[in-house]
């Protein structure tokens, strides 16, 4: 791709990321996705220059212009993450722009699932079913083998269902169980297993770091304390694992086998 295309993809990604923030914050709140955005603290409607992705956050120094309440870092991070992943997917699937655009739909949905799970520790069924539907469409039209994709989805779902059922939901959430069904559809058996392996490895590393941080005497103000019973959302690790395999071709099985 030429440099001007990269710029356009980045701008589009920032704009879509801004919309995803609205979706994440308003989902299941009864508020429509239409209408002007406003400060969540004082309710003041935002002007156009307060809605420029990333740039507005920097210019306002992370505070509401009216009440000076701190603005969540979620806003610029989601915008930058969306733009970055849009660029990666465009590079990966170029020159098939139809595939690129379809991958952007999946990526956007995965970002919403990730951030929503981090905020609420739950994955709404409508988001999971939407992802699984898009992953199945991918398997039908872009996958190598529909049979393998369906088999992989069934195997992953069954394995996670067993973890959820026999642990009574303490080892694995049912939302995660439904989510991995789409992993099989999208990645197939080998790549899908590698994505799950990445998720467990990264989850274990982060879990150990969080436990270790709780042992420190000096911690930042309001830093939460973690123990073995602390609930940590697993969907973000699943999504990271999927993206590492899907967009970066980092298949752990190749490392172990070769």
Describe this structure in words.
By secondary structure, the protein is mainly α. The chain folds into two domains: 1-95, no CATH class; 97-258, no CATH class. 66% of the residues lie in helices and 0% in strands. It contains nine helices and no strands. Helix 5 (125-141) crosses helix 7 and helix 7 crosses helix 8. The radius of gyration is 20 Å and the shape is globular. Residues 11-93 form the Prepilin peptidase A24 N-terminal domain. It is found in: Cell membrane. Keywords: Cell membrane, Membrane, Transmembrane, Transmembrane helix. Its main location: membrane. Belongs to the peptidase A24 family.
Topology at a glance:
Blueprint: H1 3-26, H2 55-59, H3 74-93, H4 97-120, H5 125-141, H6 146-166, H7 174-214, H8 235-246, H9 252-257
Helix pairs in contact: 1-3, 1-4, 3-4, 4-5, 5-7, 6-7, 7-8
Pfam family, one: A24_N_bact
Domain Prepilin type IV endopeptidase peptidase: 104-208
GO molecular function, one term: aspartic-type endopeptidase activity
Helix fraction by DSSP (H/I, runs of at least 4) = 55-70%
Instruction: Count structural domains.
Output: 2
Which blocks of ≥5 consecutive residues have pLDDT under 50?
A: none
Strand content: under 5%
**What is the mean predicted local confidence, pLDDT?**
88
Reading the helices and strands in chain order gives HHHHHHHHH
Shape type: globular
Task: Give the radius of gyration.
Answer: 20 Å
Structural class: mainly alpha
N-C termini distance: 32 Å
Largest sheet: none
InterPro entries: Prepilin_IV_endopep_pep (IPR000045), Prepilin_pept_A24_N (IPR010627), Prepilin_peptidase/N-MTase (IPR050882)
GO cellular component, one term: plasma membrane
GO molecular function: aspartic-type endopeptidase activity
Membrane topology: Multi-pass membrane protein
């Amino acid at each position: 791709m030429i440099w001007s295309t990269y710029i356009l993809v980045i701008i589009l990604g920032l704009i879509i990321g801004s919309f995803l923030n609205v979706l994440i914050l308003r989902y299941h709140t009864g508020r429509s996705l239409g209408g002007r955005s406003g400060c969540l603290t004082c309710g003041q409607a935002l002007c156009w220059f307060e809605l420029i992705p990333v740039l507005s956050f920097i210019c306002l120094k992370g505070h509401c212009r009216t009440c000076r309440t701190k603005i969540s870092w979620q806003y610029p991070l989601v915008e930058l993450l969306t733009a970055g992943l849009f660029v990666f997917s465009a590079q990966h699937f170029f020159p098939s722009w139809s595939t690129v655009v379809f991958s952007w739909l999946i990526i956007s949905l995965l970002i919403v699932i990730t951030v929503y799970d981090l905020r609420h520790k739950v994955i709404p069924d409508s988001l999971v079913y939407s992802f699984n539907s898009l992953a199945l469409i991918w398997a039908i039209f872009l996958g190598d083998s529909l049979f393998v994709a369906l088999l992989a989805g069934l195997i992953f779902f069954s394995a996670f269902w067993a973890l959820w059922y026999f642990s009574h939901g303490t080892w694995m959430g049912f939302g995660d169980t439904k989510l991995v069904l789409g992993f099989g559809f999208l990645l197939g058996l080998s790549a899908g297993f590698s994505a799950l392996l990445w998720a467990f490895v990264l989850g274990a590393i982060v879990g150990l770091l969080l436990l270790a941080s709780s042992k420190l005497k000096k911690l930042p103000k309001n830093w939460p304390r973690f123990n073995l019973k602390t609930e940590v959302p697993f969907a973000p690790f699943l999504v990271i694992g999927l993206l590492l395999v899907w967009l970066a071709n980092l298949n752990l099985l190749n490392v172990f086998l070769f």
